[in-house]
Amino acid sequence: MRSPATARVLILSDREVAPTISRCGTYEFEDVACAVDAVELLLLGESAGRLARRIERLAPGLFATPARFARAQPYDLLFLSIHSLPELARLHPLGRILGLARKAVINVDEVWRDELPEHAGDLALLRRFDHVFTPCAGGVEALHQATGRPADYLAPSVDALRFAPRAPGRPRAIDVHWMGRRRAELHHALRETAEKTERFYLFDSVQLNPRVSSYVEHRDRLADLVQRTRYFVVDVANSDRPDKTGGQEEFGPRYMEGAAGGALLVGRAPTSRAFAAQFWSGAVRPLEADSAAIARVLAELEAQPDEIEALRGRLVAHVLRRHDSVYRWEQILAAAGLEPLPALALRKRQLERLAAGFAGEDGESCTA
pTM of the entire structure? Predict the structure, then answer.
């Protein structure tokens, strides 16, 4: 991270006002960008509140640029990531901040086509940006049509250096791990399977999306858990909220997180072309919401230890080579017409060296 005088990128971050589990991956992504580029962070605060929005509408540009960001030359790029369409209203009070850079790029994590009409007014705010990204492939064209701005798909990613196993052969004491949202019928079947077969099934028993004391510690802990997990349950985004998705099938970073840690992916693989472009067919072993069927699947997997270890390694190498956050940052830079700095190439070489120790498409395997 650089001082305003030497940085070429300004990232607006919610890390101080929204320290919730669902946003920790975003802050991790920002940290990767800071590690490979000349970045200055501007921490967004309460100025994005309701009163500030009302004042900004009456007097656009009233919120002056923070004094420490005043500089002779604009940044080359301003980047901001928001979670969902309801957060668009928070863009009103940004005022002159968006004018600090030659190019402004925004990422919207969740874009459900059925929700677009109710946010039509706020969608106009995206016209302030030169480029719009989203990891919801089904929302890309809808965003373009609604804003008139270039819109592209930005696949989910992970800090693969954080999640990749560091100790080959480390015992995986967690049999099954399902974090976050879950389908009730499959969760019930997994609990029943765990009870009958005396397996350790780890799942969240607190309310969804709580605040964390430290996003860094949370991501470190998650990586540690995944590296100790045998079977990591994955599912399409908001699988428990069909009323929200309207049949739009998307997937989040869980697939990358589980694979990066060397856990076998079990559950449901999206049938979308977007997912097929990110993982090979068979990367996810399907699970039915039936305890007897789940027990059979796990028994079949455990009966072929050599093949399973090879698959673990292939998953880790695949993420290291394709799904580290640095590759997504490179995509953002390209959209802004910027060349990567040398630190980005250094990280990619580090990722490849690490991937070579695991089973990749063209590599040998080691125990993950």
Answer: 0.90
